[in-house]
Amino acid sequence: MDISLSGGALALTLGLILLAFIGLILFMRNVYSKRTEKALQGEYQAADDADKSYLANRAKYERLDVFGLSSTFFNFGLALAVGLSLLAFGWTQYSKAIYIPDGAMDLDEEIEMEPPRTAEPPPPPPPPPPPVIEEVPEDELIEEDPPEFEDTSIDENTVMEAPPEIKKDAAPPPPPPPPPPPPAPKVDEIFKVVEQMPLFPGCDQSMAYAERKQCADTKMLEFIYGNIKYPAIARENGVEGMAVVSFVIEKDGTVTDAKIVRDPGAKTGDEALRVVQLMNSKGLKWNPGKQGGRSVRVQFNLPVKFKLE
Asked: Are 216 and 208 in contact (CB under 8 A)?
């Protein structure tokens, strides 16, 4: 038996049950009140005047039969408990229908993307400036006295002295060679098209790739348009259009380098970027793209269409 109730229907049903229960209590109270008045007249009047205690008289006034319907009330309580349990199990919360525009994955035109740049070595330092030759004016030339010549002629009586011995210090060892430059950081290539494109999580891994891709695209669109909040400024000004967010799906399935490559304006591009970055916040990891049987980094362009209903 399929019992499904929305929140409003469940509240209405509980309200009717509560009103019926209160009405039953008031009705039975009235019935027992009339029975008590009738039983207390005549033969029990004197005994009742002598002792007003209900606990003392409840076994004396057999005609009241206050416990005659106890089994009925017990069965009624069981039926009510079972009914409330069925209502609780039948309470169904319906998720809001997600509106996905037609052709949500279609791009109007090819998005021109700047190829990712690898780390480049720093440029060499600029050469030193050439020396500047300043011309000295002739007025500032200093006239020097001619040098005095010394007589250095010798004859047979001249005593020659040996020149003092010059001690040569040992030459210092050559400096060690400079260390080799560090190797350039290895940057994995980012692909645009691979044999198996990345897939959004949430689909059965046992399905064929084509079926998994169709399922993954549907899951991704449900996530995007289920979390999109139309910016108030765009709604007030009637701004519609398609925003495009580019991001890289890493080998571990995380989303990096997310940026806006097309923005219709009025904060629609920022909202699309926020939803893309929400994937990492919620711990959603894509199935990475594969090329030659190994996981690779893949660049993905996601169009997000904003259309007022």
From this structure: no
Per-residue model confidence as pLDDT tens digits over 254-290: 999 999 998 888 889 999 999 999 998 888 899 999 8
Q: Is the separation of the CB atoms in 201 and 285 below 8 Å?
A: yes
Q: Which long-range contacts (CB under 8 A, 24 or more apart) does 3-7 make?
A: 3/86, 3/87, 3/89, 3/90, 4/90, 4/92, 5/87, 5/90, 5/91, 5/92, 6/92, 6/94, 7/91, 7/93
pLDDT digits (tens, 9 = 90+) for 20-52: 888 888 887 787 777 666 655 554 555 545 555
Q: What is the mean pLDDT of each successive set of 10 residues along the chain, which is 309 residues long? A: 67 84 82 67 51 50 64 81 79 67 69 53 79 68 65 72 70 80 73 89 84 89 89 88 90 90 88 91 89 89 86
Q: What are the beta bridge partners of residue 190?
A: 297
Q: At what angle do helices 7-40 and 70-90 cross, to 10 degrees?
A: 170
**Nearest 5°: phi and psi at 145?**
-70, 145
The torsion angle over the Cα atoms of residues 227, 233, 236 and 238, rounded to 10 degrees, is: -80
Q: Phi then psi for 280, rounded to 5 degrees?
A: -70, -35
Torsions phi, psi for 190 (to 5 deg): -100, 120
